[in-house]
Each structure stands twice: as C-alpha cells, then as structure tokens.
Amino acid sequence: MAALPAHDATRTAALASSLGLSLSEVQARGLHAYVEQLVRWNATYNLTAVRERDAVWVQHIADCLAVLPALDHHLAHSRTPQRVLDVGSGGGLPGVLLALMRPTLDVTCVDTVGKKAAFIRQVAGALTLPNLHAAHSRVEALKLPPFGLITSRAFASLADFTRLTRPLLAPDGVWMAMKGKTPDDEIAALPGDIDVFHVEQLKVPGLDAERCLVWMKPKGP
After folding, report:
1. The sheet that has 132-136: what strands, in order across it?
2. d(Cα 63, Cα 67) in Å, to the nearest integer?
3. Does residue 22 sit within a domain?
4. 68 lies in a domain?
5. Where does residue 3 fall: left (phi above 0), alpha (psi -120 to 50 degrees), or beta otherwise?
6. Which of these, 47, 75, 109, 212, could form a disulfide with 95 (CB 3.0-4.6 Å)?
7. Are 111 and 88 in contact, with CB atoms under 8 Å apart?
8. To 10 degrees, the CA torsion angle through 133, 134, 135, 138?
9. 73, part of any domain
10. 3-state class of 99 per DSSP?
C-alpha cells in the first residue's frame, strides 16, 4: 500500500486521537485502502447506501472504530480465545476494521449476499489480513467452531440476533450488538435466559446521533 498523502494522514490521526486510539502507519494506510475499495465496489455492487467518501468516513469508519475502546476492555478481561463472528457484515462493517485494528483477533464475516462476501475476501487479500475470513451463508446454516465474540451492526432485533447465533457462541462467549438509541423495547423482548450485562453509550466523532453497544451473554444454570 502506498504512503498516505499528508491531508489523509492528518485526518486519520485526528480521528484516532478523538477516539483515544493508537494507530500505526500500516493501519492508517489500511483504513484508507479499505475506504477506496468500498467506494469503488459500491459503484457497481450495492454494498452500502452511503456512497460519498467523506460520509463513509463518518458514518462507517468512525462509527465502527468507536467500539474499539469498549472491545479492548472486554478482551483484557476475557478468558475465551477471541474468534469473532460479524453477522450480516455487508461490506465488512465492523468485521474488516476489527481484523485490521486488532490483528490478534480471528474475524469471520458472514453475509447472505455472495458479492458482499466476495468483497470481503478481496479486502482480506488487498490489505494482507490473514485473520479476516468471509462466509457466504445464512448465519443459522453456518457450520463453524464456536466464537468467543459475536457482533452485529443493525442486523436484526436483539431477540433474533441472539436466537440465530446462539449455537455458534462459545460457552464463555458474549454478544456485542451495535445499536443507535438504547433499544429498550428490544431488550425487554429478550428471552429470560439472556443477560444484558451492560449497555454502553458511544460517542462517534462527527456524527450527531446516538450510538450504543448492548453486551449480552446466556445466563448461567
């Protein structure tokens, strides 16, 4: 990947700083390469409704990077090997960014649309991310070893998300659902054996909208 132009490097550094993140040069170049790939593929394949490059940076990149401090806190206190499943990943959000920013994670992105899975495979090769994988499948049909963390971004209701992915969750695993405003009705509709152990408010730089993470796990016996 080529070196970043000065203005792009400055913008990326400012975004990382506003989120309290440390960003290597390789990661900064990876973020820009991913945005360029997303915008280019999106002109032909409907990967995302957000098409303008600047809007992609705010509504997708900043929005997904905002979960990293909370995720890092979880990883620091987790005993489960961190295989991550990103459900309904679309153009790889947040899965691609998790794989790029946290190379110790082994990330699988699953989507029912073949072109979206193909795009994620393309990105994994272009960005040299051996820890990033794509699966073209319905999540309920996926046959893979269990995951320590299952995440989604606007995939489904919390009840459907947990129901469809529960067979894929490791015994000590957790769900991390990315949501906008705190979904009180969805939380209330969860079955009694799901523990919502934390709802974490997020601040996304440049985005005037509510964002939160809903952390869940199965209740013990």
Report:
1. 132-136, 106-111, 83-87, 147-153, 169-179, 211-218, 194-202
2. 8
3. no
4. yes
5. beta
6. 109
7. yes
8. 120
9. yes
10. helix
| In the predicted structure, residue 1 carries a pLDDT above the cut 70 | no
Amino acid residing at 23: L
Give me 101's structure tokens: 């920013």
What is the total residue count of the chain? 221
Alpha-carbon span 71 to 34, nearest angstrom: 21
Six-digit token string for 218: 């199965």
Please indicate, yes or no, whether the overall pTM of this predicted structure exceeds 0.90: yes
Largest separation between any pair of C-alpha atoms in the chain: 56
Q: Is residue 52 part of a domain?
A: no
According to DSSP, the residues that pair with 17 across neighbouring strands are none
Match 């506003």 to its residue by tokens. 18
How far is 62 from 28, CA to CA, in rounded Å? Answer: 13
> pLDDT tens-digit profile of 93-120?
999 999 999 999 999 999 999 999 999 9
Query: What is the count of structural domains for the chain?
Result: 1
Q: Please give the Cα distance from 7 to 13 (Å, whole number).
A: 10
Contact 204, 15 (CB under 8 A): no
Spell out the long-range contacts of 191-200 with Cβ–Cβ below 8 A and sequence spacing 24 or more. Answer: 191/159, 191/162, 191/163, 192/219, 193/218, 193/219, 194/158, 194/162, 194/218, 194/219, 195/219, 200/70
